[in-house]
Specification:
With 209 residues, the protein is mainly alpha-helical. The chain contains five helices and no strands. The protein starts with a helix and ends with a helix. The C terminus is likely disordered.
Length: 209
């Protein structure tokens, strides 16, 4: 395997490890920290930019490997049909080896490009999921805070209403006491007035009415 195909294989292996790491069932805090690092790190952004350039070269290798595979396949079919002249075992082995290598290179570069698309799409989906979970947690926290504040205000209003009711009840009791004292004083005044009238021999205007 040539150097550039060896590098392509290493890139494919790195993509597979990264994909497994992204889809692994990690705890929420670890996943949140990981995606925040991957999305905000300057070094990761530089690596991602370099990978985009490398994928352009991989795409060129894929097109070249695909053309070679078609050409070798056509030569192999031509040799098998006997139109290319007499072939010996060495020629057939050579054609089979070339066909195998061309197919291997095509699959290697093709899977590398395909996995890069899957990896990119998976990363952004999971990043949106983490951000949505953060927003949901923040909204839930705000809602619970508003509920606690509202409950505190309700309790304060209830306490104030209870105090007002207690004051009104105290005033009502004082009024009833004053009313009772006034009625008692009026009855005592009438009794004293009657005795005074009997003692002086006069009749009050009230009784004459």
């Amino acid at each position: 395997m040539t150097v550039y195909y060896s590098l392509t294989f290493m890139l494919l292996a790195a993509e597979m490890v990264t994909f497994c790491l992204l889809v692994a069932p990690l705890p929420y805090k670890i996943r949140k920290s990981l995606f925040r690092f991957l999305s905000e790190s300057y070094a990761v952004a530089k690596v991602a930019y370099a990978l985009k350039i490398s994928f352009i070269f991989v795409a060129i290798l894929f097109v070249d490997a695909l053309q070679r595979m078609f050409r070798v396949t056509a030569e192999s079919d031509l040799a098998k049909s006997g139109q290319g002249g007499a072939t010996d075992v060495r020629t057939e082995t050579n054609l089979a080896a070339r066909k195998f290598y061309s197919q291997r290179n095509t699959y290697l570069t093709g899977f590398t490009l395909f996995l890069s698309l899957v990896l990119t799409r998976t990363f952004y989906i999971l990043l949106d999921l983490v951000q949505t979970q953060e927003q949901y947690a923040e909204l839930k926290k705000q809602a619970s805070g508003k509920t606690s504040v509202q409950n505190g205000d309700d309790k304060k209003q209830v306490a104030e209403l209870k105090n007002q009711i207690a004051v009104l009840e105290a005033k009502e009791r004082d009024f009833e006491t004053l009313k009772k004292q006034a009625s008692q004083q009026a009855a005592e005044f009438d009794r004293l007035a009657s005795k005074y009238n009997e003692a002086t021999g006069s009749v009050s205007n009230k009784r004459s009415d």
